[in-house]
Design goal:
The structure holds four protein chains of four kinds. Chain B is mainly alpha-helical. Chain B is about 80% helix and about 0% strand. Chain B has a single domain (about 1-245), classed as ABC transporter involved in vitamin B12 uptake, BtuC. Chain C has eleven helices and two strands. In chain C, helix 5 (about 145-165) packs antiparallel against helix 8 and helix 9 crosses helix 10 (about 240-265). Classes of the chains: A alpha/beta, B mainly alpha, C mainly alpha, D alpha/beta. Chains B and D meet through helix 2, helix 5, helix 10, strand 2 and helix 11 of B and helix 1, helix 3, helix 5 and helix 7 of D.
């Protein structure tokens, strides 16, 4: 039995009268490739916001590597090893790509020794992801695909144990999707656990070892990609009745 | 490389202070000291405003409140036991710094605009308290007698000029330090995208509180010698909206992302205002500030520093 | 010093004042609350309205309320123009938060200066038959000077409320506030809707301006005294809720009136700002917010 | 890249320094001939209405003097700057006038807040300092060469309102209680502080004593609270917006008090008088000059005629009773002293002003303690017989605002009680 890196127990979140998440429980194992899917408005983004700390869950608990993190501010969760990319890229617009990467390096990877020389490290990551030649550019000058890559590169710079990739491939061409998938596989081989949230089924199904399906704030299915595809509940959720 | 940069800047800063001191010993004309004092005071205020507004992206409309609290702290102490000026500076800075910390703690969890509104309200509330606090003169105001003489300087005006020049140098130096440190880079991340910054491990609340505190303290320090400068202090002039407008317009004109921006803005706009005061009518003075503010925000959002860079970039592009 | 008569009169005076405050704050609630445009210059537009009212009242004897209604039309277009600039320069580029605020602050300042240059700094007043007269209901005295603004403020609230909740366009405005993507899917242009809504917000400013100058004398810089107050009301009312704004305005009005009657007028403003600061710290969605 | 940036920054800083030096150092050309009198004046900001009227009066004086060939053969030239009603601007302006413009004399701007900041620099140079409407501004500094033209008297704060109490004392039934209300600002607070002291002296019980902040839109709650306290007299220290608001609220709410008024700034201004009209009737308020026979001093009517000819064009108070004659008088005294001492010696002129009685457009002026008038002539006038609003001709003749106090210039009888 593999070690549980992230464990979510009975998490609930409301916005006013609207139940965004009801009693959701799931776990992610160490070094797993984990898929999270569900129709629009099913609560995926709310759930990862609760994990990353942008939102606070109301009921239940969230454990990361055995530590309860539900009450922690987001930056401390990042320092524990949870990094995320955003669905709509949120780069630091006034900084070059290199400087963008220096922020997580300085504040997370080297949080204890501020001022360490992080530029060369940032350059390495840019090199890995294929943005090295644009290190001096501003995010505004990037193409859609490079923007996605920057988003991932910045998350990588936080040196996470767990990387949450929030629809990193939306709007990309098939070739570009493969490019991103390749990066994610490589990261996973390097020992990083990955949660992928994605609408592009081809990508999730080929990437994930295990998938959880959310619908209307509740978990309706869990299993291998094959199991999930053949699940009736899932079919109903996606196609409607 | 890094420590060399520090040394150079410290040397430049000390040199400016020394020059200010030498000027006081060679020039007699009082007007230049008074006018320069006002301009230098705005260098401090604009730089202070920019640490929060320009670096971190939170708009403070309450500069007057922080400035006036520094002044009134000094007035209270002068009424109590007439301490030396450096005590006033420290106390004024402490009170306004705490004020910044408090207002930051109250509102910085919210969207930035609420912080701005709160600072607006803060100025009104504090003005009301000062108006009702009879010990420091209340609404009627109070006259402050400045010390007759001071060692090394031939009169107190020169001394105040020297103090304010040193404070301006110190303020710009602090801004430079912050800008070029991990703290400054974290602030810039907050300004660019707060949510992303936090997810990249930046402790946003702590940094924002640091910014409000330092910025508030610097404004308070700038306000501390004010009562000696005007010798008469009353709430409506100490809390004058001009401080809020100018300390915001100056960085906008100069450029908000570097320490140089507020310095350029304060010197240009401040000097222009001093000249306008003695040449044009004051309506024109206000009109100029207002138009500059709107004009720069609309047409040159990066300020003069940004314009300058753009021009040079173009020139370099051509030569390359 | 406490008596029932004083109490009831303070209550009524506060409610009347509140009705006027509502007229003052509705436009801001529309732009700030619904459109997310932090129009800090709103009070300046109001003072501008006061001066136009003064001008036609002084020179042509036009009734102030009528003047306010007349100028609503040009003010609408003024609002449209301001929003167009704001949109093109700030919203489109996503730079609205900091620079947009500063932009409106500059507008505030410019309006004030232009008023000073045109009209001078003297206090200006208007004449109308109902100023200075009172009617009585038992021991309750009600000044027309305050009752008229209250009525107009109430009417304006009801009008805007009906407009936003009943008409197609109003619903589109509410839609923009919640989700501009959804509005675009409905086939409406959110920018056009925002432009019109902002124009309406500025149009209310002239009416509020004529009410202001009915109540008391006006000088160019008086708008500053109101910035904090209108934001207090707007935030307290729960951004963008017309009925919430009205209730919040009444609460602030009554709070000020009671403070003035029983504690002393010097603390009246502090009470409303105290309410604002507490509200921001404890419940930023406002008392009546969602 | 980094290095280039560094170098350009150093350049920019250097440029800034040059700009500062050049802009301040631009030499001011000055001819030796004219006699320069320098002052700051509130031409914008809160006190601008008064400041502009004062400036016009001073310009009329300069014209009058120059028409007669100037002072000791030198033409008078007024050097003035707008202080924007901001005390912080005043020290710089006086330093500039003295060190750059090299003025021969300085006089003050309008109002306590703008007089005090100029005092230290004037004191350092031992210059004579004529000032315009400071309320006890010299109490702390006790500068011997300071002379203040407002006729409040040797103990300004209490003399200011004494008339109000002297009048009340003589009425029957005699008032026993008083309510005090003051605006939260310099003059009003001081005026009411004086009234408070007087109330104690005259044995009145204070039943209400509050302040209100600027920006108060509605005064009915305050007036009701005062009414509930049921005072026999009400003394108000207020600025124009408050004066108008309070007067309207009093007319709407009604008041049982037998005397009402005191230190309400604004009720002296023609525009406000025209707007309030009959609402003013019976209010007893301070004033400085009204067109009564007892105040018809030599020269004042000639001055007002010139003033009234120019005022409409400058958008100023069309009648100019309140402040302008005094603004004329304070420079008039300086001019007379220069001529009498036949020289420009500051100390001699100051001594002359201190020792002599001066004949001016505001009557005979003698200075006493702290440079205030030796004897108070703070007027209390009452509005009487105003029938309609909007008519300027009601206010430009005798009998509308008869002087009730002091007795030396008394010109009418009080209508009592307040209705």
């Amino acid at each position: 039995m593999a070690e549980k890196l992230l464990e979510i127990r009975n998490v609930t979140k409301r916005f006013g009268g609207f139940h965004a998440l009801t009693d959701v429980s799931l776990h992610v194992e160490k070094n797993e490739r984990f898929g999270l899917i569900g129709p629009n408005g099913s609560g995926k983004t709310t759930l990862i916001n609760c994990i990353s700390g942008a939102l606070r869950n109301e009921g239940g608990s969230i454990l990361f590597a055995g530590t309860e993190i539900g009450a922690m501010p987001a930056y401390r969760r990042t320092r524990l090893g949870i990094a995320r990319s955003f669905q709509i890229p949120k780069p630091f617009t006034s900084m070059t790509l290199l400087e963008n990467l220096c922020i997580p390096l300085e504040y997370t990877a080297h949080a204890k020794s501020h001022g360490a020389d992080v530029a060369s490290e940032a350059m390495e990551i840019l090199d890995q992801i294929g943005l090295a030649d644009r290190a001096d550019k501003l995010p505004a000058d990037l193409t859609q695909i490079d923007m996605r890559k920057l988003e991932l590169a910045r998350a990588m710079a936080a040196k996470p144990q767990l990387l949450i990739s929030d629809e990193a491939m939306a709007g990309l061409s098939a070739n570009e999707v493969d490019g991103i998938l390749e990066i994610l596989f490589k990261l996973n081989e390097g020992g990083i656990t990955i949660i992928m949230i994605e609408h592009i089924m081809r990508a999730v199904m080929s990437f994930s070892e295990r998938i959880v399906v959310l619908d209307a704030g509740e978990k309706i299915a869990e299993g291998t990609p094959d199991e999930v595809v053949n699940n009736k509940e899932v079919e109903r959720a996606y196609l409607g009745e | 490389m890094k420590s060399k940069g520090h040394l150079l800047h410290i040397a430049v800063a000390l040199a400016v202070v020394l020059v200010a001191f030498l000027i006081t010993n060679s020039m007699e004309n009082r007007y230049y000291y008074k006018a320069s004092y006002v301009v230098l005071q705005y260098v401090v205020l604009a730089t202070a405003w920019n640490i929060l507004g320009g670096y971190t992206g939170y708009v403070n409309f309450g500069t007057a409140a922080f400035f006036a609290m520094g002044s009134y702290t000094a007035v209270a102490l002068i009424k109590l036991w007439k301490p030396p000026l450096y005590v006033l500076l420290v106390a004024g800075g402490a009170v306004s710094g705490l004020l910044g910390l408090g207002i930051g703690y109250l509102t910085l969890r919210l969207r930035g605009v609420f912080f701005s509104i709160a600072t607006l309200a803060l100025a009104v509330v504090l003005q009301m308290f000062m108006t009702n606090w009879e010990f420091v003169g209340g609404g009627a105001g109070t006259a402050i007698l400045k010390p007759r003489s001071v060692p090394f300087f031939s009169n107190y005006d020169e001394f105040l000029f020297f103090v304010m020049a040193s404070l301006a140098v110190a303020a710009v130096f602090v801004a430079w330090l912050i800008e070029n440190s991990w703290v400054g880079r974290g602030m810039a991340a907050i300004r660019d995208n707060e949510e992303a910054a936090e997810c990249m491990g930046v402790p946003i609340l702590k940094l924002k509180l640091f910014a409000t505190t330092v910025s508030g303290a610097m404004m308070g320090i700038a306000g501390a010698p004010f009562s000696y400068f005007v010798v008469f202090i009353e709430p409506s002039s100490a809390f004058h909206l001009d401080y809020a407008v100018n300390s915001l317009a100056m960085p906008m004109v100069g450029g908000t992302t570097t320490w140089l921006g507020p310095l350029i803005g304060a010197v240009l706009v401040g000097t222009a205002q001093q000249i306008a005061t003695v040449t044009l009518s004051a309506e024109m003075n206000l009109l100029i500030v207002g138009s500059l503010l709107v004009g720069f925000v609309v047409f040159a959002p990066e300020g003069l520093v940004g314009l300058f860079r753009k021009l040079r970039g173009r020139a370099m592009g051509r030569s390359a | 010093m406490f008596s029932f008569e004083l109490f009831i009169n303070a209550l009524v005076a506060g409610l009347l004042l509140g009705g006027f405050y509502a007229a003052f704050s509705l436009g801001l609630s529309l732009s700030f609350g619904l459109l997310d445009v932090v129009n800090i210059a709103h009070p300046a537009f109001i003072i501008f309205g006061s001066y136009l009212t003064f001008y036609v009242n002084e020179n042509f004897g036009v009734d102030p309320i009528l003047a306010g209604l007349l100028f609503a039309v040009p003010f609408y277009f003024l609002g449209v123009a301001v929003y167009r600039i704001y949109y093109n320069v700030f919203e489109k580029t996503g730079a609205e938060s900091l620079r947009g605020l500063v932009f409106f602050f500059g507008i505030f300042f410019l309006i004030e200066v232009l008023l000073i240059i045109t009209f001078g700094v003297d206090y200006r007043l208007v004449r109308a038959p109902y100023i200075g007269k009172t009617f009585h209901i038992g021991s309750l005295g009600v000044a027309w000077r305050l009752f008229v603004p209250f009525l107009v403020g109430t009417a304006l609230t009801i009008g805007l409320y009906q407009f936003l909740s009943k008409t197609f366009f109003g619903k589109a405005v509410m839609g923009v506030a919640q989700d501009s993507l959804a509005v675009r899917l409905m086939g409406a242009d959110p920018i056009r809707i925002k432009t019109i809504a902002f124009g309406i917000g500025i149009a209310t400013a002239t009416l509020a301006g004529s009410l202001l100058i009915i109540i008391g004398p006006v000088e160019p810089a008086i708008g500053r005294e109101y910035i904090g107050r209108v934001f207090a009301i707007t935030v307290l009312g729960g951004l963008g809720s017309m009925s919430g704004v009205f209730l919040a305005a009444l609460i602030i009005g009554v709070a000020e009136s009671f403070t003035a009657s029983f504690i002393g007028p010097s603390w009246a403003l502090a009470v409303s700002f105290g309410i604002l600061l507490i509200c921001l710290a404890v419940r930023p969605a406002g008392l009546f917010g969602r | 890249m980094q290095k280039i940036r560094m170098a350009s920054r150093v350049w920019m800083v250097a440029l800034l320094a040059v700009w500062m030096v050049v802009s301040f150092g631009a030499p001011a050309a000055h001819a030796a001939k004219p006699l320069k009198i320098g002052f700051s004046m509130a031409l914008t900001g809160g006190l601008a209405a008064a400041g502009k009227a004062a400036l016009l009066a001073m310009q009329i004086w300069a014209e009058d003097v120059n028409k007669k060939g100037g002072l000791l053969g030198r033409k008078v030239e007024l050097v003035y700057y707008d202080d924007q009603t901001k005390p912080a601007n005043v020290p710089g302006i006086y330093a500039k006038m003295l060190d750059v413009d090299k003025v021969d004399f300085v006089v003050s701007g309008y109002g306590t807040n703008l007089i005090v900041p100029a005092l230290p620099i004037v004191m350092e140079r031992n210059m004579v300092f004529m000032t315009l409407f400071g309320l006890a501004a010299n109490a702390k500094f006790k500068y011997p060469n300071y002379f203040q033209i407002m006729p409040s008297g040797p103990s300004p704060k209490t003399d200011w309102s004494r008339g109000f109490f002297e009048i009340a004392k003589k009425q029957s039934p005699k008032p026993r209680t008083i309510a005090l209300l003051s605006a939260d600002a310099e003059f009003a607070r001081n005026a009411v502080a004086g009234a408070r002291a007087n109330a104690k002296k005259y044995g009145l019980k204070i039943v209400y004593d509050k302040t209100y902040p600027p920006g108060t839109p509605d005064f009915t709650p305050v007036v009701r609270a005062i009414k509930a306290a049921n005072p026999d007299m009400v003394y108000i220290g207020s600025y124009p917006p408050g004066s108008v608001g309070i007067t309207k609220a009093v007319r709407e709410v009604g008041l049982n008090a037998k005397m009402f008024g005191g230190g309400m700034v604004g009720l002296q201004f023609t525009a406000i008088q025209m707007n309030l009209g009959p609402m003013l009737n019976n209010i007893v308020n301070y004033h400085f000059w009204v067109p009564e026979k007892t105040l018809n001093f030599p020269g004042v009517n000639a001055f007002l005629k010139k003033y009234q000819a120019k005022a409409p064009g400058a958008k100023l108070d069309p009648l100019g009773y309140y402040l302008p004659p005094f603004a004329y008088a304070y420079v008039q005294i300086l001019g007379q002293a220069i001529e009498a001492t036949k020289g420009f010696d500051q100390q001699k002129i100051a001594d002359y002003i201190r020792k002599n009685t001066h004949s001016t457009v505001v009557g005979k002026v003698k200075f006493g303690k702290n440079g205030e008038w030796a004897n108070s002539r703070a007027l209390m006038v009452q509005f009487q017989g105003i029938t309609k609003s909007g008519d300027i001709n009601q206010f430009n003749k005798a009998g509308v605002m008869p002087v009730l106090y002091p007795d030396s210039v008394k010109s009418g009888k009080i209508q009592y009680p307040f209705k």
